[in-house]
Write a structure and sequence with these properties.
Layout: H1 8-13, E1 60-62, E2 72-80, E3 92-97, H2 112-116, E4 121-125, E5 131-137, E6 150-156, E7 163-170, H3 178-183, E8 192-193, E9 196-197, E10 203-206, E11 209-210
Parallel strand pairs: 1-5, 2-10, 2-11, 7-8
Antiparallel strand pairs: 2-5, 3-4, 3-6, 6-7, 9-10
The chain binds fe (ii) ion.
Fe (ii) ion is lined by residues 18-19, 150, 152.
């Protein structure tokens, strides 16, 4: 059964209720250069970005504890303003993902996002150079589905509403099909990134981000 046929309660029971794929819902459209996206604030769970105290965030965070099953993954990148060149400071990134079984498992009571997004999540804030990084584990695709393994990023700029950008997915891996590529609109820049593995078995990806333009 595809996720589209599952109700929210059923998704929650399966540990899949964390999301729809950002940017893969078919209701986005790539804007003309410099235009504002009509769907900029359409988002599931973006309020999770507001859970952290932005003043206390660093530009690096661990999303997974040392005992989390899975292969270690390092994520880094630079956040740029909408011109695509100027590093953007003080931008909060809220990230969450499935575990090594493809599930949003181990969520905690407190907020809808903490319940639905599972235990693998984290927050960073860019410094003056726009850089950020996360350490986590490599997510698995949802069980019995065709959606690629992915990591959700929500962006929160100072004084703005949060918004989703295209998920991180691993170029060349399961589910990253020509159809999937066509469904992407480069929201926040390209999220389809190659994963490389070092001699110690640690995966790395770089996901640079270009901030979207806001209506106000
Ligand atoms: Fe998801």
């Amino acid at each position: 059964m595809t996720r589209a046929r599952l109700g929210l309660a059923a998704l929650a029971a399966l540990g899949l209720a964390g999301c729809s794929m950002a940017g893969a819902k078919g209701d986005d459209a790539a804007p003309a250069d410099g235009a504002i996206r009509a769907d900029l604030y359409q988002c599931e769970g973006c309020e999770g970005a507001l859970e952290a105290d932005a003043a206390s965030l660093a530009n690096h965070a661990a999303m997974a504890s040392a005992g989390e099953p899975g292969e270690p993954l390092h994520i880094d990148g630079t956040v740029y303003t909408a011109d695509g060149k100027t590093p953007a400071a003080s931008v909060v990134i809220y990230a969450y993902q499935t575990n090594a079984e493809g599930l949003y498992a181990g969520g905690k009571p407190g907020t809808e996002a903490s319940r639905r997004h599972g235990r693998l999540r984290g927050w960073v804030k860019t410094g003056a150079d726009g850089r950020y990084s996360f350490d986590t584990i490599k997510p698995a695709p949802y069980p019995d589905d065709t959606i690629p393994a992915h990591i959700h990023f929500t962006i929160l700029e100072p004084g703005k509403r949060p918004y989703w950008i295209d998920d991180i997915v691993f170029d060349g891996e399961f589910g990253v099909t020509p159809e999937y590529r066509r469904s992407m609109t480069n929201k926040g820049g390209n999220g389809i990134v190659p994963a490389t593995r070092d001699a110690r078995g640690r995966w790395s990806v770089t996901r640079d981000i270009i901030l979207e333009r806001h209506p106000e």
